[in-house]
Predict the structure.
Amino acid sequence: MTFRLFDAPLREPSQFVGFAGNTIDRQSETRADDSVEQALADAATRLLLMHGGRLYLKLDGDSFDPWFAAPESQPFKVSLDQGVLLGFSDAGPVLAVPAGIEPEELPETVKAIDYRSVYMQGLIDEAAAGALAQGAALLAWHASHAFCSKCGNRSEMRAGGYRRHCPACGTDHFPRTDPVAIMLTVTADKCLLGRGRHFGPGMYSALAGFIEPGETIEAAVRRETLEEAGIRLGRVVYHASQPWPFPYSLMIGCFGEPLNDDIQADLNELEDCRWFSRDEVRLMLDRTHADGLITPPKGAIAHHLIRAWVDSE
């Protein structure tokens, strides 16, 4: 029996999904409590400005520039003391910083664009999109965890934004990442796709759900597929993962093997759920389906799951 590690591709599938191009050196073992202050003293430091789920982008001709120097960020009511140190790029330190100015108050040379649109429209390069995912997740966690969950007192940011410390009871809190299983149930010639009520017109996607405490990834894949579609799964294999800053999730993509065909969809969760042939899914990927049905955009891990199966003939 061959060892799977040595049969794996040199670039794993996770490297090709949206938000996965982060090249920042995080230096996680050397973050000091004053690392943000040290970074702000460096003229080479670059900032990502974020507010209300939007990234501020400077117009640069026909392109967008997400990077701000510390001095040029001041008109945007930034809270530098609430910034987080993402790490270090070849150009210098990188911070994500909450801004206070509302989108309608921005000058014409700066736009505030929601994270999903930034990545779907490819407005910034892959490295910047990866930094966006890191920064957005951290800022969202700080915004929702300002108080100690043990004693209720306000906690303080430490370690450049990678820890919150409660001065009242001494408890330390660390950023959370919520694992989500996203799975494509497949046979040799068909796959299972569902449609959520919030989806755009005609879109069908892989099923997904949060992994619960005490549950393996494979068990979560089987449970969610059974709960949402009434399909029991046998073998489950991992394919790829994706950072997902909505607000701080990790999408874990898998394939599952069905043991039955009869769908019993949970219509409280889904608007529709059905089997699609390989040829029909190929048309959906190419945006040429006669009924206007489509799959998620290229950056989404669901797209990569679907594409990998379609191309596996």
